[in-house]
Amino acid sequence: MIPINPDQIPPDGWQGFKRYWRTDLVAALSVALVALPLGLGIAVAAGFPPMSGLISVIVGGLVTTFIRGSHVGINGPANALIIVALSASESMSLPGQSGLPYTMAVFVVSGGIQAIMGLLRLGKLGNLVPTSTIHGMLAAIGFLIIGTQIHHALGISDASFSELLTRPEILLQANPFIITITIVCLAILVFYKDIENRTIKLLPAPMWVLIVAIPLFFGFRWLSQEFYPNTEQLSNEFLIQIPTDITQGLAFPDFSRINEPVFWLTVFIVTIVLSLESLVISKAVDKLDPYKRKTNLNKDLFGIGVATVVSGFLGGLPITAVIARSSVNITNGATTRWSNFMHGLIVLLFVVVFTSFIQKVPLAALAAILLFTGYMLTSPRVYKRAYQQGWEQLTILVVTLVAILLTDLMSGLLVGIGFTLLLHFFRSGMPLPLFLRYMRRPYIKVVQEKEQSYLLKIKGIINFTNILQIQNKIKKLNADDNVVIDFSHARVVDYTVLEYLHEYAEKYNQNGGEFHFTGLDVHKTSSHHPYALHVLEKPKPKLIRLTRRQVELKQLAASNKWGYNPEVAWDIGDLNRFLFFKPRPVEYMSNQISGNYPNLGVQWKIGDVSLKDAFISFETYRLTVEVLSLPFILPIFSLEEESFLDRISVIAAQQDIDFNEYRNFSRKFLLQGTDEAGIRALFTANLIHFLEKSDIYHLESNGKELLIFRHLRIASPREILKMVAYSKNLVTKLHQRTTPPTTKTTPDEVH
Fold first, then answer.
1. 295 with 285: CB under 8 angstroms?
2. Is residue 310 within 8 Å of 75, Cβ to Cβ?
3. What percent of the chain has pLDDT over 90?
4. Measuring CA to CA, how many Å separate 144 from each of 81, 82, 413?
5. How far apart are CA 725 and CA 212, in angstroms?
6. 724 close to 606: Cβ distance less than 8 angstroms
7. Are 357 and 36 in contact (CB under 8 A)?
8. Which residue of 78, 187, 511, 616 sits 20 to 30 Å from the alpha carbon of 233, by its own alpha carbon?
9. Measured distance CA(602)–CA(604) in Å, rounded
10. 200-218: per-residue pLDDT in tens?
């Protein structure tokens, strides 16, 4: 990965294309290989022609790119669309007549409304929905997706999930060959993240699913025909049904029912759910952007609305922002909006040229991808993360989830919002009239303490219902002001408000101002998470029970006279200064071991970090890293093992610093950085020989600190000991080539 300077925002438009087309093309190709199977799978799961999903992918790239507000996000059909589209088509169906044409009309009108909402600058309304209810909605969608795909995964035709539960004898009709394909595909998706082979990593997991599933299906077909002629054959009904002429079989909009109340009720539900998901995901993508660019939510709403209108008229599904594909895009080096355009163009070319390939894709392969997607949306770690944010957030999530499963998306979301308000009321301990008054009209006052220094006093019930009032106050301040928000007299401060303010403070501080909080320490919380619900009560101490690994780490630290803290640390801003974490931000660090090398003046800490997972990604990691604070300045660089693919990849335009006199080292390692002269001076023969003989670690310098880790997993106590020994030897070599600076210098100045 080429070192990134967040202060140097890439140019947009044609200038951005000329400078970054190579890296954007690599990212677009990776995204297209994910978007192709997901687009097919989402359409099939929603009960629409497979081409509807691919049209949505193509339009999301070719049309949305230049009229939206996002920079590196990807647009196309989303997971929530499966349930929304299923519900909409059921609502619009008539006896003996498909509801798909009328549903397409619903999508077109909904897209038009979204575009109008963007023009009216209503993107800020996405902040009025509690974060935990959104997570509950996504978890419910995960369950519902799984329910829609079970019969495809088992090879049982036309059997709903409810029928499988009420009539378990249907399971006897399951096709063993189809089940085998499903299991193999799921295994690929589950274990893909643990594979470190770069050749395999060249293609994303969903594409490997298709590559393996197609020959497996036709191999089983031959096997059954040759050796088991009397058993059920693997007919084409188990494959995607897509015509050779891609215009055939599509459902186009029919507006003949536009005067019916059910039409507009369906439009309302589709608009609210898809707009909400898109706004939330656009904000999540901003957190992953290495350049910290902010999406214009109003423009984004307009862009996806216009694209949805175009897609609907062409027989495609609605367009939204999508998080998994956006994550793939950013991780693979996307820099400008052109990567979204290119991914749509690549999928279009693939559809035109390789239609016969798509016709050979087993439905079981798509079912496996969607089952895995559904599981990721509602996996145990979703509930664990919610509990880490406080029992209140977990309760809100579960209530929303259950309400949606028992009713529908819109009703369940409203139940979740109502329950959140009810929980805030009971936790406040206030009479209902007073609670409602303080929530409706909280005390929010800006006091100027001195020039360019302001205190924002807040009292009352501070939650998602009045977040817009807080926004209006703080956005009137200048970008270089010193702002302190005082919560010491706020009775309740909820998760959604704290999440927004912390994100706002991070960007505000990056732009040269100072934005801080005070008064939260006097509140009671059920979690150490910085966004946990804060209630004005006296906090009680909380006991921590150590796991077996934590006991071993504690003993390891004690025997070496190191410090050890098992608690979760949420303040990890220093880690996000490293390039490795730019596209995959750290959520928290736990099990911190700390020590120093006194003779070298080096402080170090080792901990288990958990990377943020924005709702769903095919790769999520927890890994053990070491960070060394150095008493000297280093050039900014990254060093990792180099593979054959790295050496031949000219299209990625990566600058690998090679040493002609140390060819073995240059073949073994990928060394990158912008200050080539400084890096060459640092990597002496002594250091290079040490690195060649040692275990291979990922090394990265941000100027004043070093990041070290070996595996994308949690390290054992023995591996931690080896890491400490390695880092001590490493800094000894580095110390011999550097001297402490005589003046205070920042990494940016060195860069």
1. yes
2. no
3. 33
4. 11, 9, 15
5. 43
6. yes
7. no
8. 187
9. 7
10. 887 888 889 989 999 999 9
Positive or negative, the CA dihedral 350, 351, 353, 357 is positive
Strand partners, 563: 594
The per-residue pLDDT for 1 is 41
**What is the sign, positive or negative, of the torsion defined by CA atoms of 504, 506, 510, 514?**
positive
Question: How far apart are alpha carbons 7 and 95 in whole angstroms?
Answer: 60
Are 491 and 428 in contact, with CB atoms under 8 Å apart? yes
Encoded amino acid at 681, one letter: A
Q: What does the pLDDT look like over 375-422, one tens digit per residue?
A: 888 889 899 999 999 999 999 999 999 999 998 888 888 999 999 999
Percentage of the residues of the chain whose pLDDT score is greater than 70: 90
Q: What are phi and psi of 235, to 5 degrees?
A: -80, 175
CB burial of residue 146 (10 Å; 0-12, 13-18, 19+): buried
> What tokens appear for 232 in the block?
């059920």
- Give me the pLDDT at residue 128, please: 80
Pair type for strands 602-611 and 698-701: unpaired
Can you read off the two tokens belonging to residue 372? Answer: 């895995």
Q: Rounded distance, CA 178 to CA 364, Å? A: 6
Lowest mean pLDDT among 130-144, 583-597, 625-639, 737-751: 737-751
Q: To which H or E segment does residue 23 belong?
A: helix 13-45
CB 495 within 8 A of CB 466: no
Beta bridge partners of 224: none
Say what the pLDDT of residue 750 is. Answer: 33
Helix (H, G, I), strand (E, B) or coil at 190: helix
Which among 491, 384, 474, 479 is positioned nearest to 435, based on CA atoms?
491
% helix, strand, coil for the chain, step of 5:
55, 15, 30
Q: Where are the beta strands (DSSP E) in 463-585?
A: 482-493, 514-518, 534-535, 563-565
For the range 519-522, what are the long-range contacts, defined as Cβ-Cβ under 8 Å and sequence gap of 24 or more?
Answer: 519/486, 519/487, 519/488, 519/489, 519/490, 520/487, 520/493, 522/488
Say how far apart CA 461 and CA 445 lie, in whole Å.
14
Is the Cα torsion angle 494, 495, 498, 504 positive or negative in sign? negative
Lookup: tokens for 696: 């291979």
Residue 469's alpha-carbon distances to 128, 178, 439, in angstroms, are 11, 55, 11
Contact 482, 451 (CB under 8 A): no
What is the SS3 assignment for 517?
A: strand
pTM comes to 0.78
Token pair listed for 72: 């590196």
pLDDT at res. 578: 86
- Is residue 390 classed exposed, middle or buried when 0-12, 13-18 and 19+ CB atoms within 10 A define those classes? buried
List, as own/partner pairs, every contact residues 235-239 make where C-beta atoms lie below 8 angstroms and the sequence separation is at least 24, other chains included.
237/157, 238/155, 238/175, 238/178, 238/362, 238/363, 238/364, 239/359, 239/360, 239/361, 239/362, 239/363
